[in-house]
Amino acid sequence: MPLSQAELDRLADLTSDETKGAFADEIAKRTSLSQKDVMKLVKSEEDRAAMLGLLEVVSDATKSNAQKAQALRNVAGGIEAAVKIVGLFVW
Q1: Could you tell me if 24 and 39 are in contact, meaning their C-beta atoms sit under 8 angstroms apart?
Q2: For residue range 56-91, what is the model confidence (pLDDT) as tens digits?
Q3: What are phi and psi of 9, to 5 degrees?
Q4: Residue range 53-64, pLDDT digits in tens
Q5: Cα–Cα distance list, 21 to 13, 30, 60, 63, 67 (Å)
Q6: Which of 25, 40, 83, 85 has the lowest CB atom count within 10 Å?
């Protein structure tokens, strides 16, 4: 289910070290990733920003897959975040 802009904004507010666990919980609830997987992926603020950018692109129901791929190229760290996520399932 795509995330609304309000949900993305709320997740963006969970960026401090104190809220890292809450961020991981929220991402885990909305994806097939576990909290443990999310914690592996988002070790820094940049990682969290990349994850949010990735979720925002993927959640945009108005874009085709090709448009999403192009938009993902424009997200700082977005490609790297996608590769890390795929790596969790492949290895």
Answers
A1: yes
A2: 888 888 889 999 888 888 888 888 888 888 887 775
A3: -65, -40
A4: 888 888 888 889
A5: 13, 14, 25, 31, 32
A6: 83
Question: Which residue in this structure is represented by tokens 């904004």?
Answer: 9
Please name the residue that has the structure tokens 């909290």: 35
Which residue type occupies 5?
Q
**Residues contacting residue 35 through CB under 8 Å, at least 6 positions apart:** 21, 24, 25, 28
Distances (CA, A) of 18 to 32, 45, 50, 68, 85: 23, 12, 19, 32, 23
Residue spans of the domains in the chain: they are 5-90
SS3 category, 2:
coil
Distances in whole angstroms, Cα of residue 60 to Cα of each of 21, 42, 87: 25, 22, 23
